[in-house]
Each structure stands twice: as structure tokens, then as C-alpha cells.
Automatic annotation (TrEMBL):
This enzyme's EC code(s): 3.1.2.-
Gene Ontology terms, MF aspect: hydrolase activity
InterPro entries in UniProt: 4-hydroxybenzoyl-CoA_TE, HB-CoA_thioesterase_AS, HotDog_dom_sf, YbgC/YbaW
CDD domains, per the entry: 4HBT
Highest taxon listed in the record's lineage: Bacteria
The protein's name: Acyl-CoA thioesterase
Alphabetical list of NCBIfam families matching this protein: YbgC/FadM family acyl-CoA thioesterase
Length: 141
């Protein structure tokens, strides 16, 4: 559980592209996971925890769990906001939650992803890698 003072979020605006829609002009459900990726990328750039930072430290972070709940459709040409929040955990994991809001500020979709750390040998890290713990300390987590 984290206190309100150290919750890290990022908001990114995205426009629905034609190739993300089905014949009805509605976003195909599988693209929401890609939108979550857009949110993680934006979060990393804003808060100094990009995939390149992780890779340069000698680690990769595969997703081991993802959830996605759909409430309203998005359509071709619409813009929407992705709010990505880092969920602090004592475990060696990256946990993010996502909320997608349409132009009317209605919740369209929510979800979560969990990533683990693997070292350069592909071994699961049971403790926070040093660079990640240093980042958490810097962020007050």
C-alpha cells in the first residue's frame, strides 16, 4: 500500500488510428493492451524508468499478468487519455494500473499489468535489482 504523497502517475493523450479499428470503426479489444504499453512508455520517459534504462542495467521485464476491463467503445479518430499509475510493491515487480478516458471524461477501459525482472541469464530476480531500488528511493517509494 502506498500513501497519497508518493503515487506516481502519467497521463498521455492518444488518437485512435484507423488500423486499430474493426469494420464497424470500433477499436478492436486487443489494441487496449497496446495502449497500456503506450502508457508505460510515457510513464518511463516522465519518471526516468524507461525500457532502455532497464535494459542498460542488464535486465528485462516480461509481463506475467495482464487484465483489461472494457466499459465503453473507442472509435476511429477519437482522442483519449491514458492514466498510468505505478503501484509500489515490496516484491521485485513492476505493477501498473491503467485508466482510459474518452473526450467526455468517461471511463472507457481499466486494467493492470505485472512485470517481473529477469537478469541477463534469464533468471528471475527475487529481490529488487540495485538500480530499481535506487530509483524507488529517489522517488520516495
Amino acid at each position: 500500500m502506498q500513501s497519497k504523497e508518493n503515487i506516481l502517475t502519467c497521463t498521455e493523450e492518444v488518437r485512435v488510428r484507423f488500423n486499430e479499428t474493426d469494420p464497424l470503426g470500433i477499436v478492436w479489444h486487443g489494441h487496449y493492451i497496446v495502449y497500456f504499453e503506450d502508457g508505460r512508455e510515457a510513464f518511463g520517459r516522465q519518471h526516468g524508468l524507461t525500457y532502455l534504462d532497464i535494459q542498460n542495467a542488464g535486465f528485462v521485464t516480461p509481463i506475467v499478468k495482464s487484465t483489461c476491463e472494457h466499459f465503453l467503445p473507442l472509435k476511429y479518430g477519437e482522442t483519449f487519455r491514458i492514466v498510468t499509475t505505478f503501484v509500489n510493491s515490496r516484491s521485485a515487480k513492476l505493477i501498473y494500473t491503467y485508466e482510459l478516458f474518452n473526450k467526455d471524461n468517461q471511463l472507457v477501459c481499466s486494467g493492470e499489468t505485472i512485470q517481473v525482472f529477469l537478469d541477463s541469464n534469464g533468471t528471475l530476480c527475487l529481490y529488487n535489482p540495485g538500480f530499481f531500488q535506487a530509483w524507488k528511493d529517489k522517488m520516495g517509494l
